[in-house]
Design a protein that fits this description.
single chain; 300 residues; alpha+beta; Endonuclease III, domain 1; two-stranded antiparallel ribbon; 44% helix; DNA-binding
Amino acid sequence: METGTIPTAEVPGPFDLQATLESGQTFLWTRRDGRMYEATVPTGDNAWYRTVIDGAGVALRQSDAGLEWRATTDPTEELRERLGLTDEMATAIAALPDDGLTGMAKAAFPGLRVVNEPFFPTLVSFILSAQMRVERIHALVQTLSERYGTAHRIGEEVVHAFPEPADLAAVSEAELRELGLGYRAPYVTATAEMVAEGVLTANDIRGRDYEDARETTTGYVGVGEKVADCVLLFSLGYPDPVPLDTWIRSAIDEHYPDVRGDDYASTSRALRDRLGPYPGVAQTYVFHYLRHRDAIEAPV
DNA sequence: CTCCAGGGAGCCT
DNA sequence: AGGCTCCATGGA
């Protein structure tokens, strides 16, 4: 077991670990006190998050000194990639429009980053996300990991990796339904088979222009345009996707009424033109802000 | 009780 | 292509 710290001074721009990990972009981390998505800031040992990176357990928390980690090998470079601790991300955030919703969101959560998480876990996570609350998506992803993923140690603690495609594909639909996946169970099975058998993989998507990549991604079962946008934004590093979920659609009605188009593609294009040079970053900020707006405007 | 959640597939015109 | 209906489950 090694420990280390990424000093705050070595992270470009402001960074907020809690906002980044608890904003519904990734469901692959768990907090030690098990109380994610609540309107409170964890302190001390409660602030440790854990996940598996490249087959090794990693624990991480933010303190005044920076990002403290515990792992068997130094995860600093992987963390920079996965958590957006890059100059490019800092530049994109600084370029967010200061007016309107993005301005409010940036003021409220200046350290929020867009993540870049592994492809298959992100794909399955957002297949599960259909008609499901953020807290429950996280619970189901963790259940799948505990049941079908490999266990790894971080000292005395245990953390489970998200299942490999073949291992998830081997689980019966009935069993997945028992876990609470509902009608999404056959989607997960079919998509896991496609990835495991190489029918459609991340390499078939990378490198394509954004809208082409989105159409290709909808080739998975249970993946429509919205889920495809989430996968491209939170896993494959595309800067343009603006996933049109219920929150963003209501924000369009409230703040950008002229943006609403006939279909997903045209609405998406029109909204992108309003959100500045990094639409995906802006959308991520707006989504997180909308979900916490009440608590911000009426603090207890 | 009803309504809603980071929607999508299947079917119909 | 575009519109409609149904789909599981849990929390408010």
